[in-house]
User: Which sequence fits this backbone?
């Protein structure tokens, strides 16, 4: 890595030397890209000391994606793992995980309040309502608060068009998937509006018990009170239901026998988000906004990941759970931006208050495990009994989140931009636990900071460095789960995890970018080193039960590379990837003195491929106007399946093909996902015992998607 870093510095210096004599009027698009997410205001790339990428409306439109991962994986350093039916895990400066280390925003506002993270929150995103997607890699807790650790993804919605526009489309594949989508908007006088809706349905797919349906509607209304004052209303409504097929055993995976071990697991979600924003420009150097918002979410599950089965302890029985997590939010966020002539200074300051009452319950279900020949894997599970008397969790809580933040940027020297930022977050939880009949209050607070600098010796090359902090408080569902796994009428005094602490992270980063040959070639890179402390441990105790503790430590380091070359109008080539290492530093897994494995110190984290990347070659033939085609390559290197580093999954390389043709207002397109029909798994995991069997989250066979879209725009 040191050699690669030195090579990049040499190349950078060569570029600078070669361009010293060039005019400052060189058109450099990459350095002049405008980003919102990195600094909460419209900011040029060359003034942003973080690793940030932007997926444009063109990229989103040409992807014709059925799920968000098909778009987001085009970002260097990002691996969004498809779990089926728009469910996912994420890997940005972390292994592939469902942990609360990512922050998902919709137009700058978190989709979930602090303390109620859900890795599947992106189920609620409407892909037909996106103007762009911005991805910040690394901690930005000093700007957006907790959970902005591995990365932050901001989904920016379409605004009302000046002229009437309308589009309608349908798409379907050979595995029973189909979607209808429509969007339109216009501006009439002082009022603009945009409405977008999708309805997706999956039936009788390649995997048994894998149906789902999703309906989303987004409505935005802008009222331009005056040239300097605007009132903006956004409303999102979504409804989702999905079977949860889970993983398959090794034998079924390699035989392509894609059958679910359950026919009763599910996930369902109802979501409503609405916000009202008042924006005002005081003058050319000052602007403010105030947003009030409301969320209403209901999530119910009989999750496949909740099934517990052991081949050595009564292997014909198993347990599962049914749970429900419902919350509402009432909140406000205000922000002011002020520019000063002195050192070209810009100050951004704001505050947030969020009140989110939540109810959660979970109880056990008893299952029968029907085994495959040999008795080491399960053919299928059956429900024997639902046990609402055996509570795993049952609580109500009022969550009060408050925060204040400020960030300052200025030019202390020519071609140098210095950025400073800080934020204080306070989360108070007033709770009533129906299992141990307790009530009380817990407070989690943290001040986080960042400092960064940009050096831009030329218009077409720049460098940056930053130090940033991140933190993630324990999710309240972790706090209020019984240690024994059941409560209720068992007669056993339930214990809970009231002493869990927030995980904290320190990130050190340097990077740069350059543009050559009149913007035909763009290159960017980032090196990072991040340490995590007080991460959640699952420790085995002397009585063979388990305990959660906030005492783990991990280390994450790597390089992210992005390369784009457009030699002519017909051809565009994009290459992106990351090399990363994720290790346990202090990670205890057992207090049992006779266990051979006491801790995981020094071991590589599972589900952490060192190399991963996504590249694409686009072709827009001039001899065939309005036609496009591309071939995409997704690479995931091998990684350990278990924590003790004994077995690896080989990883995969897959190719996707996309093509489309537009004739007047009609567009027809086709995607071939997994072009070579490769057998691979999105994720493979197993326990640490020698007898543990792997679970394969099988990926779809070759899939042909066809679509038709009508696009109408009335321009003056």
Assistant:
């Amino acid at each position: 890595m040191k050699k690669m870093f030195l090579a990049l510095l040499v190349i950078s210096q060569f570029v600078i030397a070669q361009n010293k004599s060039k005019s400052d009027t060189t058109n450099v698009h990459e350095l002049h890209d405008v980003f919102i997410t990195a600094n909460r205001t419209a900011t040029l790339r060359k003034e942003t000391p973080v690793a940030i990428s932007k997926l444009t409306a063109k990229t989103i439109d040409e992807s014709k994606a059925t799920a968000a991962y098909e778009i987001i994986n085009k970002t260097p350093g990002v691996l969004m793992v498809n779990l089926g039916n728009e469910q996912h895990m994420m890997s940005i400066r972390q292994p592939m995980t469902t942990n609360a280390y990512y922050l998902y925003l919709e137009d700058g506002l978190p989709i979930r309040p602090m303390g109620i993270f859900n890795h599947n929150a992106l189920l609620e995103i409407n892909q037909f309502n996106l103007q762009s997607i911005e991805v910040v890699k690394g901690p930005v807790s000093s700007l957006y608060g907790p959970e902005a650790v591995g990365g932050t993804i901001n989904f920016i919605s379409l605004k009302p068009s000046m002229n009437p526009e309308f589009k309608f489309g349908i798409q379907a594949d050979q595995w029973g998937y189909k979607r209808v989508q429509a969007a339109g908007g216009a501006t009439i006088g002082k009022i603009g509006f945009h409405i977008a809706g999708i309805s997706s349905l999956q039936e009788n797919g390649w995997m048994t018990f894998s149906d789902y349906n999703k309906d989303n509607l987004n409505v935005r209304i802008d009222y331009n009170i005056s040239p300097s004052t605007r009132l903006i209303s956004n409303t999102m409504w979504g409804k989702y239901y999905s079977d949860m097929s889970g993983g398959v055993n090794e034998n079924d995976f390699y035989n392509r026998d894609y059958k679910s071990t359950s026919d009763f697991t599910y996930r369902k979600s109802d979501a409503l988000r609405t916000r009202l924003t008042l924006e005002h420009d005081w003058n050319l150097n000052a602007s403010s906004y105030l947003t009030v918002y409301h969320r209403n979410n209901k999530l119910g599950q009989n999750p496949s990941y909740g099934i517990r089965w052991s081949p050595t302890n009564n292997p014909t029985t198993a347990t599962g759970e049914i749970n429900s997590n419902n919350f509402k939010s009432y909140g406000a966020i205000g922000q002011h931006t002020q520019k000063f002539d002195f050192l070209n200074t810009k100050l951004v300051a704001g505050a947030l208050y969020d009140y989110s009452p939540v109810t959660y319950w979970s109880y056990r279900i008893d299952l029968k495990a029907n085994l495959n020949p040999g008795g080491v894997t399960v053919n299928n599970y059956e429900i024997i009994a639902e046990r609402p008397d055996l509570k795993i969790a049952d609580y109500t809580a009022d969550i009060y989140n408050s925060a204040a933040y400020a960030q300052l940027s200025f030019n202390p020297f020519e071609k140098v931009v210095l950025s400073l930022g800080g934020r204080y977050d306070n989360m108070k939880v007033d709770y009533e636990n129906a299992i141990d009949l307790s009530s009380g209050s817990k407070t989690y607070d943290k001040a986080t900071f960042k400092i960064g600098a940009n050096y831009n010796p030329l218009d077409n090359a720049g460098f940056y460095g930053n130090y940033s902090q991140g933190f993630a408080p324990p999710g309240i569902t972790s706090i209020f789960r019984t240690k024994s796994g059941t409560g209720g009428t068992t007669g056993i005094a339930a214990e809970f995890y009231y002493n869990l602490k927030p995980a904290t992270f320190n990130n050190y980063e340097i990077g740069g970018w350059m543009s050559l040959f009149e913007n035909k070639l763009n290159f960017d890179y980032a090196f990072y080193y991040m340490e995590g402390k007080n991460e959640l441990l699952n420790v085995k105790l002397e009585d063979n039960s388990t305990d959660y503790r906030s005492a783990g430590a991990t280390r994450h380091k790597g390089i992210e590379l992005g390369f784009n070359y457009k030699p002519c109008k017909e051809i565009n080539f994009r290459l992106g990837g990351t090399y990363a290492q994720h290790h346990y530093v202090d990670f205890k897994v057992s207090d049992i003195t006779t266990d051979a494995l006491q801790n995981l110190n020094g071991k590589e984290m599972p589900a952490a491929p060192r190399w991963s990347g996504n590249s694409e070659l686009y072709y827009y033939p001039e001899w065939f106007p309005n036609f496009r085609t591309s071939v995409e390559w997704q690479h995931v290197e091998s990684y350990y399946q278990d924590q003790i580093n004994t077995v690896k999954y080989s990883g995969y390389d897959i190719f996707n093909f996309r093509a489309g043709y537009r004739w007047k207002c009609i567009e027809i397109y086709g995607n071939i996902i997994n072009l070579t029909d490769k057998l691979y798994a999105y994720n493979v995991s197993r326990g640490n015992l020698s007898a543990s069997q792997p679970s394969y989250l099988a990926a779809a066979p070759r899939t042909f998607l066809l679509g038709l879209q009508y696009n109408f725009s009335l321009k003056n």
